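worker-3 :: picked Coatomer subunit beta'-3
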Amino acid sequence: NDFICFYDWAECRLIQQIDVTVKNLYWAESGDLVAIASDTSFYILKYNRELVFSHFDSGRPTDEEGVEDAFEVRHENDERIRTGIWVGDCFIYNNSSWKLNYCVGGEVTTMYHLDRPMYLLGYMANQSRVYLVDKEFNVIGYTLLLSLIEYKTLVMRGDLDKANEILPTIPKEQHNNVAHFLESRGMIEDALEIATDPDYRFELAIQLGRLEIAKEIAEEVQSESKWKQLGDLAMSSGKLQLAEDCMKYAMDLSGLLLLYSSLGDAEGVSKLACLAKEQGKNNVAFMCLFMLGRLEDCLQLLVESNRIPEAALLARSYLPSKVSEIVALWRKDL
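worker-3 :: tokens ->
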């Protein structure tokens, strides 16, 4: 029982032997996809029909393991399936953790958490509902939009024009679900257009380097962490004006100090000194004043911050005329 053999129906010729312990087998109606369930996991395979027919038509001999590459592993998941059904290219199943999931193109989505063991009966397309039954013969239906399944199926088949025709029929609340699916397929631009959640759209915009879109979202959400993330990306991209705006919104004073000092922007450093002092960021304020050569203001800042010893050292090094005054304050402080 540690392998399964597939044969063609007409002449019982061996198509392929697959080394896996099989608990159950679920074929899609198209005959091109099959789910193989074992005790600990399941596999979704695609049947390469044309390759197999070509092999048999050529008259080449078939070895004991069948036709090479007759099946292609599309997806493997470490879940134990209780029951499963196919709807198009979508595999719906419930697992041993009492979750009702569906899998399209290798992406698994959890629809519902079940409160007891249940068994799949089928899917009614006209109602967009999947039905399950429990051991007491209670039948329960859950919504699974047919339009959503069709959209994902068409995307998997590469028929994007038809998929876009179906998209308007999918409710807005499901658009983030669609966007996550598209992202998993590497279609990040399309995911950004469809997604509605601001946080998710921001992450997609950052991935794509679409900084203006990310800025619009950050202005809408007003999140300090988003401004900082956008500012770092803008800085690394050389978009210094955007980086400055983001750092101001995020109150990233250290970042602004680095930016202004690198640009030699004395006016910016001066404004930053005032802002840092207002925000109680005395270290940044001191650095700004020191870079501007405003030594008396540096000294006054240290005194106001009750850092008299540092003020005394500064006076001894740069403002000898102030030493006696600062030493007197130091003695008084002691």
